[in-house]
Amino acid sequence: MTSNxxxxxxxxxxxxxxxxxxxxxxxxxxxxxDMERFIVxxxxxxxxSRPGLDLRxxxxxxxxxxxxxxxxxxxxxxxxxxxxxxGCTRQEVVEVxxxxxxxxxxxxxxxxxxxxxxxxxxxxxxxxx
Amino acid sequence: MTSNxxxxxxxxxxxxxxxxxxxxxxxxxxxxxDMERFIVxxxxxxxxSRPGLDLRxxxxxxxxxxxxxxxxxxxxxxxxxxxxxxGCTRQEVVEVxxxxxxxxxxxxxxxxxxxxxxxxxxxxxxxxx
Amino acid sequence: MTSNxxxxxxxxxxxxxxxxxxxxxxxxxxxxxDMERFIVxxxxxxxxSRPGLDLRxxxxxxxxxxxxxxxxxxxxxxxxxxxxxxGCTRQEVVEVxxxxxxxxxxxxxxxxxxxxxxxxxxxxxxxxx
Amino acid sequence: MTSNxxxxxxxxxxxxxxxxxxxxxxxxxxxxxDMERFIVxxxxxxxxSRPGLDLRxxxxxxxxxxxxxxxxxxxxxxxxxxxxxxGCTRQEVVEVxxxxxxxxxxxxxxxxxxxxxxxxxxxxxxxxx
Amino acid sequence: MTSNxxxxxxxxxxxxxxxxxxxxxxxxxxxxxDMERFIVxxxxxxxxSRPGLDLRxxxxxxxxxxxxxxxxxxxxxxxxxxxxxxGCTRQEVVEVxxxxxxxxxxxxxxxxxxxxxxxxxxxxxxxxx
Amino acid sequence: MTSNxxxxxxxxxxxxxxxxxxxxxxxxxxxxxDMERFIVxxxxxxxxSRPGLDLRxxxxxxxxxxxxxxxxxxxxxxxxxxxxxxGCTRQEVVEVxxxxxxxxxxxxxxxxxxxxxxxxxxxxxxxxx
Lengths: 129, 129, 129, 129, 129, 129
Hints:
By secondary structure, chain A is mostly helical. Chain A has helices at 4-16, 18-28, 33-48, 55-69, 73-85, 90-104, 106-126. The longest helix of chain A is centred in the last third of the chain and has 21 residues, at 106-126. The interface between B and D is small, with 9 and 9 residues.
């Protein structure tokens, strides 16, 4: 049975990062089958679906936080994809990551920049903007 | 002698948080007089003054990062003021802070919310929006 | 309308920390009324209510994490209360906090110990074990 | 000369993770020969050998902390092995890691889950439970 | 019975921060009497007493780390005292803290500067350099 | 046009790590061409060039911070090179990294040690001390 929260979350994920969540689902289906559901339901169904902040701004907030925290490179790359899919330009992503040098230091910002570089290259190969 | 970078940075700070930087200047003038200058010049003169991201979005990025890092309550409060002065609504600040529950956990988001509450109260008393 | 998830979460909170969640509700009712609901529903309704790990062990896991992260003293104190209410002894809390010296350093463990000391004193005054 | 603390620590490591400490010893013997000794003596000889908390609970506390800190994947994998060797079930490890989504965010919990997945696969190949 | 490690550690603490450790001992004597012993024995008896790095440099390393981590203000203040007692000048402490803006961001460096300011004031009152 | 700050910063980088900054420049020239300039100008031109702390001590402070933060392995390796180029001995680097076990925990110190090991090996191959 699919909850309403799951449906609302999936709708957003289908816009910004349909592949990312499928990989998580596939990867964890045997050992933690509920985790994919929780990710769709709480972050996306409960939070991202709220009014008061558009998707593009939400992804900018997330890219900022993950660059600053600096301990979750795969998720940062995934959210840089989401940010671009939600309408951010590449230059905006670069600006947000660069700004993190001020709040989390240059090493965190540099590693964020390398994450963005990988994402941009991957998207170039797929012809995505 | 005032550098061009200082002037550009001061111009932005005058818009978003003129009191904050004065407090830092006053507080550190004897022991680290250059620190206030560095803060005006690098974060504001070099980074916030760049084109490609408007001030409001820059402050949203900073509020996200400081809430997620969770170890700098005074600076978070200061940037919530800046975000509101740069045109964010209170509801947008609340949304950004709430979203951090997903990326840095509920305690970090709760402490961010308490920081926002203090700032809102202070602004109510001063008749600021 | 109260969701099933809320009811399940509230039931657990009533056992381990009924006052903590009331304070959060009261404190955030004007600015972020949904946050208390999210805390009851996701952490408690979805996670703590799962089979496979008893409440006492869940609270030990949380006290460990919050001591190690070291940036959320109020929530650490709250979960030390919860741990004791869930059946941990004071000595077990002390052991868990001390062990964090190994994984997050002595300062984090010391600050965890001071949090525990405050909680123990408060409970002595209330005649709680 | 082997200290009493070293002997007590080694005894515990022989139960939960004899290979891990051998790798550290071999790897650091030339550049920091004392480090292996310090690891056996302080974390294991002084802390894990204390009464008041059983080994299984100690490893749950450590897995919680390392998942939440999120910056030490090799040591997290090593302690997931230790937790299973100390009597935790795989499902208990999964529950502890999942719970960290609440306190350190979903990215930290996801990376903890991937660490657990690697460990489970390695143990499947060796016929370990 | 006092171990040799305790004696070696206490000797160093008597030079750099005799009051700090007495406060910890007094504060934790009832709930975690072994913690003070562990602090004297491992950090000071085992680590600070090693040849290869003088005390002054060790305290600079510690002030750097605690400023960068940013979640342990009381211990940072304590180690700024130790650094000055070990022969660092106030200006050296200021330089180290300022440099952390590069590696952990401006908020962490600012909070480190405020910690130094408090320590300097306290020492002025006591006539310490 | 090259600023005076850039020239001062480049002079220091030429002493401690000329290759590191060239790699960053090359890597980011298309997506964030200003970042290399900011790194030369602020950390090196503004901070490292200040009197009051010699280069060797500055690099010890940086190695301490990056080991403790534990989320930027490439930058830590780069600064271990810089520390050795600025006159630190290998043994001093090992001592600083080991000491971080006290302040950031054993996993952070272990990962710092592995970073140092890689750097030492690379330098052995190049005949560097």
